[in-house]
């Protein structure tokens, strides 16, 4: 994944004619931290050694910002790639952060609540010297949530001797979390549908939408799509997919997930294999689960006119080429799912100022930033005669490179 991210950067940097000295600096992270620490299970029969990571790509624009993921296959390359992509994402929407990412190589699904808390608190202590409200601000990601962020914030605060809400975002509102943060990524995706539809020449008022993934991003994207008057015809999770050409009752499916954890057994729609969603007749396809799902095998089956990437890096290089050759309009992840980091920025601002906004204020500002960012990227795509992914990278890299050149070299 890191090689793909660097290769993508090198291609765009060459296209831009970016100064080689700046390009060399931007293609590697500023700081990479790898830790290992002991972890005991509830039974205490063994003490396992766990690996953790925190990568800060660039602090030229301000503090670094990025999620922490708990997954059994997370590694330094994946975290580094995601940190780099976060830098471009922040620059695209104009958020004054550099990119960062963290991870712990463990399966959270196999942990009790007490075990998850011990892992979180110990990992926090291992990286405590490289995070902080003015240096690096973590957030939830794959396998983590509001509760994990609450434990992280509490551990940091206990260490410094006073409450520091601004050290993380994605916290519960009771600890200074922003309203509408949980829904931000999914909601931000749906805000872009009218503009993407206009760019492809279709009526964007009521579209058929298929969503691969029904976790935090996919579920709230489905809710926002239904509220906007669109028809969600299919969703999926790790147990498989559900399909109804007349539209799924999103609130009913969400309630089923809350009660049963997975979509398996949901009675009000047809059940299909999860990957069959890619080949459904629909207007908009939203991959909102994991990376690499739109690849050389699945991209050729896509019938949607628009792909809006909710997950990080859901389309491989080969898949991207196939989709573009077939004339499918792609809104890339570094633009499409930037709603999460945008509202994380709002949360950080509110914590620092100790003044909190209403949900209407948060949603209105999110809509304004996301739609403006789309217009900016689309303008680059038209003027440079490139696809939206390349245009988004040009916009993000150019903004970061300009800041790097203005700051100069120390000493």
Strand content: 15-25%
Helix content: 40-55%
Element-by-element helix/strand order: HHEEEHEHEHHHEHEEHEEEHEHHHH
CATH class of the largest domain: Alpha Beta
CATH architecture of the largest domain: 3-Layer(aba) Sandwich
User: What profile does the largest beta sheet have?
Assistant: 7 strands, mixed
Rg from alpha-carbon coordinates: 21 Å
Return residue spans where pLDDT drops below 50 for at least 5 consecutive residues: none
Strand order of the biggest β-sheet = 9-8-7-6-10-11-12
Q: What is the assembly state of the chains in this entry?
A: single chain
* Overall mean confidence score, pLDDT: 95
The number of domains is 2
Q: Tell me the span between the first and last alpha carbons.
A: 33 Å
Number of strands: 12
Q: Which structural class matches the secondary elements?
A: alpha/beta
CATH topology annotation of the largest domain = Rossmann fold
Note down, in words, how this protein is organized:
The chain has 411 residues and is an alpha/beta fold. It has two domains: 2-164, 3-Layer(aba) Sandwich (Rossmann fold), CATH 3.40.50.10860; 184-336, NAD(P)-binding Rossmann-like Domain (Rossmann fold, 3-Layer(aba) Sandwich), CATH 3.40.50. It is 45% helix and 17% strand. The chain is built from 14 helices and twelve strands. A seven-stranded mixed sheet has the order 9-8-7-6-10-11-12, with helices on both faces.
Keyword list:
single chain; 2 domains; Rossmann fold; alpha/beta; 14 helices; 411 residues; 17% strand; 45% helix; 5-stranded mixed sheet
């Amino acid at each position: 994944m890191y090689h793909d991210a660097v290769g993508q950067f090198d291609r765009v940097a060459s296209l831009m004619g970016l100064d080689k000295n700046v390009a060399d600096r931007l293609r590697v992270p500023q700081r990479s931290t790898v830790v290992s620490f002991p972890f005991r299970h509830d039974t205490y029969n063994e003490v396992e050694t766990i690996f953790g990571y925190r990568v800060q790509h660039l602090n030229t624009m301000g503090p670094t910002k990025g999620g922490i993921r708990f997954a059994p296959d997370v590694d330094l390359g994946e975290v580094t790639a995601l940190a780099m992509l976060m830098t471009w994402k922040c620059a695209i929407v104009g958020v004054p952060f550099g990119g960062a990412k963290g991870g712990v190589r463990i399966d959270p699904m196999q942990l009790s609540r007490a075990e998850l808390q011990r892992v979180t608190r110990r990992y926090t202590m291992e990286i405590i010297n490289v995070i902080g409200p003015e240096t690096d601000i973590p957030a939830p990601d794959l396998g983590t949530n509001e509760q994990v962020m609450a434990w992280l914030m509490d551990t940091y605060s206990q260490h410094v001797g006073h409450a520091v809400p601004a050290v993380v975002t994605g916290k519960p509102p009771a600890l200074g979390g922003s309203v509408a943060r949980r829904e931000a990524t999914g909601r931000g995706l749906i805000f872009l549908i009218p503009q993407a539809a206009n760019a492809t020449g279709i009526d964007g008022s009521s579209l058929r939408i298929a969503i691969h993934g029904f976790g935090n991003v996919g579920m709230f994207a489905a809710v926002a799509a239904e509220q906007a008057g669109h028809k969600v015809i299919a969703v999926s999770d790790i147990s498989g997919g559900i399909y109804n050409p007349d539209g799924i009752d999103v609130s009913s499916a969400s309630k089923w997930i809350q009660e049963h954890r997975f979509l398996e057994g949901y009675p009000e729609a047809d059940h299909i294999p999860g990957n069959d969603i890619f080949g459904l007749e629909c207007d908009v396809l939203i991959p909102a689960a994991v990376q690499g799902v739109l690849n050389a095998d699945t991209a050729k089956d896509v019938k949607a006119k628009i792909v809006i990437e909710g997950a990080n890096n859901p389309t491989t290089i080969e898949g991207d080429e196939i989709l573009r050759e077939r004339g499918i309009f792609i809104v890339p992840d570094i633009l499409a799912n930037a709603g999460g980091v945008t509202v994380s920025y709002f949360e950080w601002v509110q914590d620092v100022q100790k003044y909190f906004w209403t949900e209407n204020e948060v949603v209105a500002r999110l809509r304004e930033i996301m739609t403006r960012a789309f217009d900016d990227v689309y303008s680059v795509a038209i003027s440079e005669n490139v696809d939206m992914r390349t245009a988004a990278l040009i916009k993000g890299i150019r903004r970061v490179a300009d800041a790097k050149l203005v700051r100069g070299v120390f000493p």
